[in-house]
Design brief:
- The complex is a heterodimer.
- Chain A is mainly alpha-helical.
- Chain A has one domain: Formate dehydrogenase/DMSO reductase fold (Up-down Bundle).
- Helices cover 69% and strands 0% of the residues of chain A.
- The radius of gyration of chain A is 22 Å and the shape is globular.
- Chain B is of the alpha+beta class.
- Chain B has a domain of 212 residues: Alpha-Beta Plaits (2-Layer Sandwich).
- A 4-stranded mixed β-sheet of chain B has the order 10-2-12-11, covered by helices on one side.
- The longest helix of chain B is centred in the first third of the chain and has 22 residues.
- Classes of the chains: A mainly alpha, B alpha+beta.
- The interface between A and B is large, with 75 and 75 residues.
């Protein structure tokens, strides 16, 4: 019988204690029940299928996708856009915790920050998957490559996404390390970064919207409402994911103190989901009442154009899910413990609705009709689905491992409680 | 609170560590197997190609090396002997194109000529030019069709060929994250095919559908390869990068006319140096009522259309 040293010796330096912390975290993250191992094995298997599909795509060229010169971005960029929103959505825990001093939220805010890390990792993977020449990735690295900053919005996106990843890794890493050392976290070392992360979260999704809305040749995207819409739907999908994750964490690990944060997030979604719907309605009114060639992409999306209707089922599914989710969220019972299944249903619907609306429902119609008004439809290929599901599996692995590493912190909430 | 968080005592630590290590090894092995197709891709990229610097930063000697390498690769892959030039803009030149839509009859010879001249992939029948068949009485592209067939010209139609407009304010150049595409002094927007990372942002930004992506490695039979090539234009492109019309700079910078113009049987196409006061193109721009596509976008094309 043996055990890992529970606590480092007092006069130890960070040089020796930090590797121990990493080792300890890795060990903890790989300890679990049979169900945990089954879950991780399943995710690994799915991830490997995706990795294999991606390798085939790189080897054989992107002809393996169903993208064309007319619809030159598809499922990957759709998921990328959605994932940026998910990463930004975590800030809806940070704001109540740090700006409104919601103590219960403060205790578990690390869940939102860890979600941001996993989601950004997925964003970067989706961008890599979309590159025709991933081997030339270094051309984008400032210093050794040629970075077209500040003109190209994509370079801004590279900066804000990587910055957001680093900020969140610093915050989570610092808090967990202090917990490992058994010391009180020093607010000087993380609170300024938390404040920065709030602004930064808004920026990642704004910049991502600017990627699209700055293109004059794409009327469907060329709207000032895009960035606010992105943020509103991010503040639906992010909290929706976190609520479901918290319900699972509570069930599986017995972490307490989650019910009040779940209630707070539910109340946030009640507002954001309506704001999002209002903006969608405003967009659609402007499009359809004005008419003209501006509206052809929206017509294609909602009703089909010249007999081509590939996106119509997608978009009406999204509209239906968003509306039903909004009604469920507005119903007072959704806050009651006995109606938890309803809350989960509402969250899943809002999440899927946002995924379609922002992904297939936003990226693809930007290309249909094409700039020469050709109507070339797009349905993702099997290879694209494999890569996409593989990246999702990898993201869930990161999130699971991160939550497992943070469990001691989450279970002993009194620890962070004492901080400010 | 305590300073020493209690941690669980783990039974059989070494056995568990061994089991975990075994599973980690298994996972890593499976991952290597899953991405093994990458080995094939890696074979196609030499170290010299991987390390190659941006076109504008290559010294003359480095350019010679790169071009020699590309010529050897074309020989090896396509079995064709080609000469790749490095054609630079001629000082005092600004190339401009114009098409007389009263004359164009939609025969599509320009599309075909572009396909052959620029060593496009045969299987996908790629070309930098698309021709829209438009009903007379409208300028709305939505009414047009790029997939028309039958005998041309049809009485109630006119024909609108569209290719890269070589904009003075090119949105495609602005959006490129790695400066793989830029506008040269004679107005031609070029791509360094060995620097492009294939993100296709330029394809999304272009309002004229002027850019093409190499979804697969181009296939051209050896005897059909056009051997007169240039680094920034019609050399056979690598897979996974974006390409575009270069006003045939491998011809025009050597004093010849673009292939699409030479192939046009109607004489609808006029090409020249707008800075040359005696040029045809200058006379047309001064005397015809010319218009440009999507003027409201502010892209300032160097490509004009007119009716007689």
């Amino acid at each position: 019988m043996s055990s890992i040293p529970a606590s480092p010796i007092e006069n130890e330096t960070h040089i020796t204690s930090y590797p121990k912390f990493i080792g300890r975290s890795l060990w903890l993250a790989t300890e679990g029940s049979f169900a945990f191992y089954a879950w991780m094995t399943a995710l690994t298997a799915v991830f490997l299928v995706g990795a294999n599909a991606w390798a085939n795509q790189v080897a054989g060229g992107m002809i393996g996708t169903n993208m064309t010169d007319q619809v030159s971005w598809g499922l990957y960029i759709a998921n990328f856009t959605f994932m940026v929103g998910l990463a930004a959505g975590g800030v809806m825990m940070v704001i109540p915790a740090y700006l409104y001093h919601d103590r219960k939220m403060h205790d578990v805010v690390i869940i939102g920050e860890l979600l941001a890390i996993a989601a950004i990792a997925m964003c970067l993977m989706f961008v890599m998957a979309d590159l025709g020449r991933p081997d030339r990735f270094w051309h984008m690295v400032p210093g050794i490559g040629k970075f077209n900053w500040p003109i190209s919005m994509l370079t801004w996106d590279v900066i804000v996404l990587n910055g957001y990843l680093l900020i969140n890794m610093h915050i989570c890493g610092y808090l967990l390390y202090m917990r490992f050392l058994g010391r009180k976290p020093n607010p000087v070392w993380y609170v300024p970064f938390v404040m920065l992360s709030i602004v930064w979260a808004i920026s990642i999704h704004t910049v991502t919207a600017f990627l699209y809305c700055g293109l004059g040749g794409r009327p469907f995207w060329n709207t000032a409402l895009l960035a606010p819409r992105f943020l509103a739907s991010a503040f639906v999908s992010g909290p929706a994911f976190i609520i479901v994750a918290m319900i699972f964490i509570k069930k599986l690990t017995g972490v307490g103190g989650l019910d009040q944060p779940i209630g707070t997030l539910t109340k946030i979604i009640r507002v954001t989901i309506l704001i999002n719907l209002l903006m969608v309605a405003s967009e659609l009114f402007t499009e359809f009442y004005t008419g003209g060639s501006h509206v052809s992409a929206a017509k294609y999306l909602f009703f089909g154009l010249h007999g081509k209707t590939a996106l119509v089922p997608w978009t009406w599914t999204a509209i239906a899910m968003n509306l039903i989710a909004a009604l469920l969220f507005l119903w007072p019972g959704v806050l009651m413990f006995k109606w938890r299944p309803v809350l989960v249903t509402a969250c899943v619907m809002a999440f899927v609705g946002a995924w379609i609306e922002k992904g297939m429902g936003l990226i693809v119609p930007g290309f249909i009709p094409s700039t020469l008004h050709e109507i070339v439809e797009y349905v993702p290929s099997q290879l694209e689905w494999k890569v996409t599901v593989g990246i999702w599996a990898f993201g869930l692995m990161i999130f699971t491992i991160a939550i497992k590493t943070a469990l001691p912190t989450l279970k002993r909430t009194d620890f962070i409680d004492n901080q400010d | 609170m305590t300073n020493h968080p209690s941690l669980p005592i783990i039974e059989n630590f070494s056995r568990r560590a061994a089991v975990k290590g075994a599973f980690a090894t298994l996972g890593a092995g499976a991952f290597v197997a899953a991405i093994s197709p990458l080995r094939q891709a890696a074979k196609n990229t030499t170290a010299a190609e991987f390390m190659q610097q941006h076109y504008t930063e290559l010294s003359p000697e480095q350019k010679d090396e790169v071009i020699a390498r590309l010529e050897a690769e074309t020989k090896e892959k396509y079995g064709a002997d080609v000469t790749i030039g490095d054609d630079r803009p001629i000082p005092g030149t600004k190339f401009v194109y114009a098409i007389n839509l009263s004359v164009c009859n939609g025969n599509g010879k320009c599309v075909e000529a572009c396909h052959q001249e620029n060593n496009h992939d045969r299987a996908t029948n790629q070309s930098y030019i698309r021709v829209l068949e438009m009903p007379k009485g409208t300028m709305d592209m939505e009414q047009g069709s790029t997939t028309y067939s039958g005998v041309v010209p049809k009485d109630d139609k006119f024909y609108l060929p569209v290719q890269c407009q070589q904009c003075d304010e090119p949105p495609c150049v602005d959006v490129c994250p790695v400066k793989a595409t830029w506008k040269e002094e004679d107005g031609i927007v070029v791509v360094d095919y060995n620097w492009c990372i294939g993100c296709r942002y330029c394809e999304a930004a272009c309002p004229y559908h002027a850019r093409r992506f190499n979804w697969k490695e181009p296939e051209v039979p050896a005897k059909e390869v056009n051997p007169d090539q240039s680094y920034l234009s019609n050399r056979i492109r690598p897979v996974g990068v974006v390409e575009k019309c270069t006003y045939c700079l491998h011809r025009t910078r050597r004093g010849k006319l673009p292939a699409c113009l030479e192939a046009c049987p109607t004489g609808a196409r006029v090409f020249g140096n707008i800075l040359d006061k005696d040029s045809n193109i200058r006379w047309i721009l001064q005397n015809k009522r010319v218009y440009i596509l999507k003027e409201e976008l502010g892209t300032k094309p160097a490509f004009f259309y007119y009716f007689d």
